[in-house]
Specification:
single chain; 469 residues; two-stranded parallel ribbon; 12 helices; 4-stranded antiparallel β-sheet; alpha+beta
Length: 469
Amino acid sequence: MFARVSEFEIALWGRMPSCARLPIALAGSKNRFGRRVGNPAQVRQPAPLFIAICITAVCHAQNLPRLTLQEAQAMALQNHPQIAAAQNEVNYANQQIAVERSGYYPNVNADITGSQGNNLARIGAGDLPASRLFNRFGQGVIVRQLITDSGRTPALVASSRLGAQAAGQTAQATRYEVLLGVNRAYYDVLRAQATVRVAEQTVAARQLLSDQVTELARNNLRSQLDVSFADVNVSEAKLLLLRAQDSVQEAQAELGRALGSDQPANYQLIDEPLPSAPPAAPNDLVAQAAGNRPELASLRLARDSAYKFYEAEKDLSRPAVSAVAVGGFLPYINSSGVPAEYEGIAANVNFPIFNGHLFSARREAALQRAMQADQRLRDQQEIIARDVRVAWAAANDAYQRIDVTAQFLRQASLGLDLAQGRYQLGLASIVELTQGQLSLTQAEIENLTAKYDYQTQNSVLQFTLGLLR
């Protein structure tokens, strides 16, 4: 009589992959001579190792906090230092507007001056004006106002405004890059965790098969060669599990970094639905990316800012008109006939004539910088056009691999069933059976990898189009 099977074991049996159910079914079968291979009462129940792995995995997953992709993106936008640094750069650029606009306003200074000198003496060296020395103490205000500098200040203000807008677009590009990093790391963790589950099932299934073949060999129903092959398969499965577990640790560390943390992200991640198929051709996508990508908008604004600064540098060679007004009083002065109060106003027109080619050099340097901005914009446009085509091709390939790997999985499952039947009848060796197990494990890994690869490549495609927000 068969041993009673609990409802929990029946539920586990229903979730077991075909590679895990194979050895259990095999143990209760007959060989080609009509002899039953193995004791069904001993092997109908799932292997204790497999049950322990399932229980441990389920309990561990239940203890972890849940995290969706949208929640991960919100965490990254709030915590990532690159986004904070980009916002600081935007704030800096906005302050540069105030710096350049200061030329529109008067410059007001208050002075308090006291001096001592031998009375009626004259300064013999230095500047020509005000060479007379006397004791005094005075207080006054000086007001200077730029009337016009032939358009230089408006050009500088316009350049700074465009520069601030360019910084804002660069911050937006940084935001998109952070979101892409989160998506990549999120799907990498899901892929690594799914691979671990496949590896755990593979270890359990192959260990169970090894135990069964070993028991059959003790009863002289299988050879030691079968035992050796089964043990080799177990070792290969354990190596696969170790590599998969290491991949999980690496992926969690990358996700933690993408979230703006220095700790690994230990969460129970929620699977996202598969996106729809990519468009049939990439040509329309290139034009869409050219209008959406913030990097291009930033470079256009930076180019316009550079040309405005070039105009400002040209205005250095033009006249500048300014006014100055002074007023104050002298509570103490040892020179007779000097009024106790004073005031005055003057206007000044400055004509640059020669300064060692300084202004012409600055003008030419600004022109070259503006032309460089033109070429950088052109280069980025070409890079984005290439990136869109490459991302579209990668996404299209990943989408097609989903169907191919699904067919691969069906064929591998069928091949394993056939190998199982032949091995039960004694018509095939364990090499054929273990090769079927290996093909099924590879097909399962390829199938889940194709799924998460497509989700990752679709995120890359959305990023290149400027739609990952």
